[in-house]
Specification:
The complex is a heterodimer of chains A (768) and B (160). Chain A is of the alpha+beta class and 768 residues long. In chain A, 25% of the residues lie in helices and 25% in strands. Chain A contains 18 helices and 31 strands. In chain A, the strands form eight sheets. A seven-stranded mixed sheet of chain A has the order 3-7-1-14-11-12-13, with helices on both faces. Chain B has 160 residues and is an alpha+beta fold. Helices cover 35% and strands 16% of the residues of chain B. Chain B has five helices and five strands. A five-stranded mixed sheet of chain B has the order 2-1-5-3-4, with helices on both faces. Chain B starts with a strand and ends with a helix. In chain B, 52% of the residues are buried. The chains are: A alpha+beta (768), B alpha+beta (160). Chains A and B meet through α1 and α15 of A and α2, α3, α4 and α5 of B.
Chain lengths: 768, 160
């Protein structure tokens, strides 16, 4: 388990790489003293709140805020007229208004904001603002845009991205051809810590401090500063404790509004979203319709994939273009595929905006390609595991983009290790007839004799880091003073445990046990986003580089002190050691009186845009995973219970095995949610289930035991040998569960297909 | 907004002044008494993040009108143990990896203590059933179940 690139053979020392030390914020979190962004901002702060559009598409005829001003306790009211800088923002295209001015394009679009002395005063003020709308017919069907029959609903047009991939021989055919059309509903990240921010204006109003739960402090800062009309350095961001993220905090939500209100009133302002507001206040996973056709030889070798992907991007661009890139470049999945014709569309509609969520486009593609692999196996009458093994990608294979797969690619091993994991002890239909063990639980009374057990597989490939030429570097600073290491990064800790990993890296590289983490803020260079499974690689690489720079200076110091050549010195465990002599001195002693401070940036290798035919080295690196799901189904009642999920995941090196397991189990839970529970329902452009009562999240009773195997083959491209582990768990868990449901239905003699997630009872019964 | 009442929280009486009677217990604990451990995540009793005990019963504090809790004993995570001296349940959550973002954690800690006080030897199914009112979006629950089991075993071993 020793990481490549770590000079010291220190992997067994507690708290170093390869061990699972407790989180540095763990005790504060269990005792309730950890400061989440919603806990920040005390006496004297005003409350902010946002007025939102009730219509998916409408012209704003008139806004009258005067009735709201008459409410005691209201301190300010702002609209589009009060945005001093750039009127729009956005991660890739700045097409989203801070406040709607002439038109609103989705239910929930901000129109105005207020600051007042109490949340209830805010609510009454919002109710008092008069907005007269002239409603328009919303554009809700992306296919109308693909057909070219929908007039533009935004000056930038309705096509957020259209990209083809044509690779190999587009006319190639196979002995066996299978096709299907797959649909995915809109999933919400549903982090528990609702959006919350606290803005403190400078006394002269020339700047602002913003405490906010976000995934990317520096990107937020740039967008906020542009809208405020301030230089970046006058907008200082501090990471407020983050209660989960999963992609939903990559875009701006309340950041600009909170700062605007605070600067306007010259007082600190807190803004907190409610759960209902959170559902419309951040971007979601793209709903998608994907048609795929696979050609294969009689032996089951994939000859060609054809695909057409239509992603509903909602009203604004967000990251739709990057999500679509991921989807189309992952249509082949973790399988060799010499020929491909793929066409992808990301479309603007009057639905809720879509953007980043864990898996980022690959979740959608994977549900389709894994459903197809099962169809292929069925057509060829071979085992679903066997079809995957026959096509499993290897290092050196050429992708459909023309890029060579040069990541470690243990696809076959992931599949074989998953298949070998033990089956659950639990008998079909539960233990001793306990109704809690049945599909549907105690309330829905499935009959044990009707329950059928199914088994299904899913395998996935996921790109790591950002793509298409984006240099998403990370910065870290390491200071060693009197035997204590201090690490400074702007890496958003969202729960994943980078704070633990940063300490582990420093302990391993520098032989110091006492590692302090400085505040996470914009007083250092960017760390890039906590997304794309990238922080272990990127910020891990930066922390490693900064610690190594400090180590060189420490060794130089010791060498000078002892009249030795610094090249003879290394750090073993907690000691500086002369490899050619007898000198052994504790790092703590060696660093007495020493104060060295180094900052390092880590950049991944450059990537490139795709050309018109979708060819180009657009991705940085890849990780792989396999899942096996076992489900009990009552086909008559349409009820499902997931009994077990087994997985083997390509992790490179498990730098913190407990954290890796945590990512795996948590990701599978979200994949299970998409498979059988979670969907934002929009009817006529209006969300119908913006609450945890109606949007169903997996509870402890829904989530089965997970058995996991970590496939450790160090990745030479990665600074610590480790791949990001956050996204893969939620990607192929979903198709594995759906495949298991299909298997159960097949055993029950049902012939209808299930090609949509989440799978609902009516889909299982066959009435949908 | 001129009501005045008193709440008994974590063994102490706390005055609540100038409050609006529409405020729920979660809001009053957090915003008026400065007891920030209980978290608000759904505002309708679905997620358990705001769990406290009221007269020894688990409640979602977002569903309780603060003024209706007058005269009853309320316990929040702050009342379980002094800072830096975690309970066995709290320590087990840290040790097993049951904490990621930590937002659901205070509610789960209260619920897990309550469970283990009532049932010192819960089966895995009992743990799942009893804690199913506490939603966690990060962990997939595996480590949380392990933490509760670990405490149950340790307490049994300590008592024999």
């Amino acid at each position: 388990m020793t990481a490549t690139g770590i000079g010291a053979p220190a992997a067994v020392r507690p708290g170093t790489l390869g061990t699972s030390p407790p989180r540095p914020d763990g005790i504060a979190k269990v005792q309730g003293t950890f400061e989440f962004s919603s806990d920040i901002g005390g006496d004297g702060a005003l409350w902010g709140a946002t007025l939102r559009s009730p219509h998916p598409s409408a012209r704003i005829v008139r806004i009258d805020v005067t009735p709201a001003w008459k409410i005691a306790g209201v301190e300010t009211i702002i609209t589009a007229d009060d945005v001093p800088g750039k009127p729009t923002y956005g991660l890739i295209d700045q097409d989203q208004p801070v406040f709607a001015r002439d038109v609103v394009r989705y239910v929930g679009e901000p129109v105005a904001a207020v600051a007042a002395d109490h949340p209830e005063t805010c609510r009454r003020a919002l109710e008092a603002i008069v907005v007269e709308y002239e409603t328009l017919t919303p554009l809700l069907d992306p296919e109308l845009v693909v057909e070219g029959s929908a007039p533009p609903i935004h000056p930038n047009g309705n096509v957020l991205r259209h990209q083809r991939i044509v690779h190999g021989d587009p006319d190639a055919t196979g002995d066996v051809v299978v096709e299907g059309t797959y649909e995915l509903g809109m999933q919400d990240q549903a982090f528990l810590g609702l959006e919350a921010a606290y803005a403190v204006p400078d006394s002269g109003g020339g700047g602002v401090d913003l405490h906010v739960a976000t995934q990317w402090l520096h990107e937020d800062r740039g967008q906020i500063a542009a809208c405020l009309g301030l230089p970046d350095e006058r907008v200082r961001l501090v990471l407020g404790g983050v209660g989960g993220a999963f992609g939903a905090r990559e875009d701006i939500s309340l950041q600009v509004h909170t700062c605007l209100l605070a600067l306007r009133v010259g007082r600190p302002v807190r803004m907190h979203y409610s759960r209902a507001e959170s559902f419309i206040g951040h971007v979601h996973r793209h709903p998608a319709t994907i048609w795929m056709r696979h050609h294969a030889t009689g032996d089951g070798e994939i000859v060609k994939v054809e695909a057409r992907l239509v992603f509903d991007g909602g009203a604004y661009a967000s990251t739709s273009s990057a999500v679509l890139l991921n989807a189309i470049t992952h249509t082949q999945g973790p399988y060799r595929c010499p020929n491909a014709v793929v066409e992808g569309w990301a479309i603007r509609t009057n639905h809720l905006p879509s953007g980043a969520m864990r898996g980022f486009g690959v979740v959608q593609a994977c549900f389709a390609h894994e459903s197809q692999l099962d169809r292929l196996a069925e057509a060829l009458e071979i085992d679903p595991v066997e079809i995957r093994l026959r096509n499993a990608m290897r290092t050196g294979d050429r992708l459909i983009t023309g890029q060579i797969m040069d990541s470690v690619a243990p696809v076959e091993r992931c599949i074989r290790e998953t298949v070998a994991l033990p089956f659950p002890d639990e008998p079909v239909g539960g233990v001793d007839g306990d109704p809690m063990r049945l599909p549907g639980g105690a309330g829905l009374t499935a009959d044990p004799s009707h329950v059928v057990r199914g088994i299904g597989y899913g395998v996935a490939m996921k790109n790591l880091m950002y793509s298409e030429g984006f240099d998403d570097y990370s910065t870290a600073r390491c200071r060693l003073a009197d035997g204590v290491v201090t690490i400074k990064v702007a890496t958003a800790e969202v729960g994943q445990g980078f704070v633990t990993l940063a300490q582990q890296i420093a302990r391993s590289v520098l032989g110091v046990d006492d590692v302090v983490l400085d505040r996470i803020d914009t007083d250092i260079g960017s760390a890039g986003s906590t997304s794309a499974s990238r922080q272990t690689w990127m910020s891990g690489g930066a922390v490693d580089a900064a610690c190594r720079a400090v180590r060189r200076r420490l060794l130089d110091h010791v060498a000078t002190e002892h009249g030795l050549d610094a090249d003879r010195l290394t750090i073993e465990g907690t000691e500086v050691v002369d490899v050619d002599g007898d000198l052994r001195v504790d790092v703590a002693d060696a660093s007495a009186g020493v104060d060295v401070d180094e900052t390092a940036e880590y950049h991944h290798r450059p990537t490139h845009d795709l050309d018109e035919l979708g060819q180009g080295d657009c991705h940085t690196a890849f990780a792989f995973v396999a899942h096996r799901a076992i489900v009990d189904v009552d086909p008559g009642l349409g009820l499902v219970k997931v009994v077990q999920v087994a997985t083997a995941q390509d992790v490179g090196v498990a730098l913190n095995p407990m954290s890796v397991i945590g990512q795996i189990e948590g990701g599978i839970a979200q994949g299970l949610g998409l498979a059988v529970m979670e969907e934002i329902i929009q009817v006529d452009g209006r969300i119908r289930n913006a609450s945890f009562t109606d949007y169903l999240l997996p509870t402890m009773l829904d989530m089965p035991p997970v058995v996991a195997s970590l496939v450790e083959e160090p990745e030479p491209l990665a600074p610590l040998g480790a791949k990001g582990v956050g996204e893969p768990p939620c990607i192929s868990a979903t198709p594995a569960i759906v495949a298991a449901i299909r298997d159960a239905l097949r055993q029950a003699g049902r012939t209808h297909r299930i090609d949509r997630v989440p799978v609902r009872p009516i889909d299982i019964i066959g009435l949908s | 907004m001129s009501e005045h009442y008193s709440l008994h929280v974590n063994g102490r009486d706390h005055d609540v002044r100038d409050a609006w009677l529409g405020e729920n217990l979660l809001y009053v604990l957090r915003e008026r008494l400065g007891l920030l451990a209980a978290k608000g995540a759904c505002e309708q009793g679905e997620c358990g993040s705001c769990t406290v005990t009221l007269a020894d019963e688990l409640v979602c504090s977002c569903l309780v009108l603060a003024a209706s809790a007058v005269g009853q004993s309320i316990v929040t995570v702050e009342g379980l143990a002094p800072p830096g001296r975690p309970t066995d349940v709290q320590q087990a959550f840290v040790d097993t990896g049951a904490v990621q973002c930590g937002f659901c954690t205070p509610g789960l800690i209260i619920a897990a203590h309550d469970l283990l006080d009532r049932d010192p030897d819960p089966s895995e199914l009992t743990i799942r059933e009893e804690l199913s009112g506490n939603v966690c979006r990060c962990t997939g629950y595996g480590r949380i179940i392990e933490a509760v089991q670990r405490v149950a075993v340790a307490r049994r071993e300590a008592s024999t």
